[in-house]
Write a structure and sequence with these properties.
There is one protein chain. The protein is of the alpha/beta class. Helix content is 40%, strand content 12%. It has 12 helices and 9 strands. It has a 9-stranded mixed β-sheet with strand order 1-3-2-4-5-6-8-9-7, sandwiched between helices. β5, α8 and β6 form a beta-alpha-beta unit. The longest helix has 22 residues. The two termini are 30 Å apart.
């Protein structure tokens, strides 16, 4: 079955509250689970909690009291969104994106990160509530990175997509733009061996494609995390992965953030000719499922809605990120972290 057809089935199952559609045959589940446990023991989870990076970035463009005030950026998702594996707040993806967005917009950016290490898609409702159920205004744009733990902990893909879609819908109804970094290609993790490598790649790419279909239907945009964004990871794993050989290093997070930033800016209409297709870069308008399938197989690819049932497939040029200044310190979270 093609990836596009599988993604359509998963997305359709999610839309109709189906939860039983699996991606692996029964004969492979035992091998898959055994290999997962072996890989987890090899990887290890002894990392400290990610540093807090909440605060105001781009203060050189004015203070929060100036009109129209800072742009509000929210980060949601799992350990990748939280920045697990780096020691400095400015090395987290949230800080990198906030600093880059401020430089493009020439306007301060207020970052609020509610991502949780170890989170699955069933934690997104809680995270969205933290952003919306209070006196603060909703974020102008939210970035969600989720899916890896759904795969390793065997959440049914239809349930995973349904939960993500519900979170995107809530944010969109609140007036926020949404950019989703889809499930990364878990077949690239160094301690993962065959046959888990092939299975992990297949399952994670199928989930990424299905996530894209669900997100685009709600008016969000997706960026394929793919093999953790590009050949750099395959060529330089010692530099791109952190000490646990599973989470990105500071250089790895910077590479990922450079790929997400153009879509983040396009969502806020800060990118010139943001939705004009460039045929020289193999961009085009495709049926949503075909665009989702193509994006899942090529890291750093954006999918955004066009005229239903079509979507734009874009390969935006990465933008070099400025070095973010340290963010103001804020109190530590009271919720207990759960590492992947």
């Amino acid at each position: 079955m093609s990836r596009a057809r599988t993604a359509r089935r998963i997305a359709a199952g999610a839309a109709y509250s189906g939860g039983g559609l699996g991606l692996l045959g029964a004969a492979t589940v035992g091998v898959f689970l055994a290999e997962v446990q072996l890989a987890k023991r090899t990887v290890g989870t002894g990392l400290p909690d990610p540093p807090r990076a909440d605060g105001l970035y781009g203060t050189e463009f004015g203070g929060p009291e100036l009109s129209p005030g800072p742009l509000r950026l929210a980060m949601l998702g799992d350990s990748t969104a939280a920045g697990l594996g780096v020691r400095r707040a400015r090395q987290t993806p949230g800080a990198l994106l906030a600093s880059g967005l401020a430089a493009v917009a020439e306007r301060p950016v207020e970052l609020r990160n509610v991502a949780l290490s170890g989170a699955m898609s069933d934690d997104l409702d809680r995270q969205v509530s933290l952003l919306l159920d209070g006196d603060r205004p909703p974020p102008d744009v939210a970035v969600i990175m989720i899916g890896a733990n759904d795969v390793t902990r065997r959440m049914p893909p239809t349930q995973s997509v349904r939960l993500l879609t519900a979170a995107v819908r809530r944010l969109r109804l609140a007036g926020s733009q949404v950019v989703v970094g889809t499930c990364p290609d878990l077949g690239t993790i160094e301690p993962v061996y065959q046959p888990l490598r092939w299975l992990a790649r297949r399952v994670s790419r199928q989930l990424a494609a299905a996530q894209t279909i669900g997100v685009v239907a709600q008016g969000g945009r997706t960026v394929s995390m793919g093999d953790l964004l590009g050949p750099e990871f395959a060529a330089n794993p010692r530099e791109m992965f952190g000490p646990d050989s599973y989470h990105p290093s500071a250089e790895g997070y910077a590479t990922a953030a450079m790929a997400v930033l153009p879509t983040l800016c396009a969502a806020l209409e800060l990118w010139p000719d943001s939705d004009r297709l460039d045929v020289s870069r193999d961009e085009g308008m495709l049926p949503v499922a075909e665009a989702a399938s193509a994006a899942a197989g090529q890291a750093g690819t954006e999918v955004t809605a066009a005229r239903a049932p079509w979507a734009l497939l874009k390969h935006r040029r990465r933008r070099r990120l400025p070095e973010p200044a340290p963010a103001p310190a804020e109190p530590a979270r009271t919720v207990e972290s759960r590492h992947t």
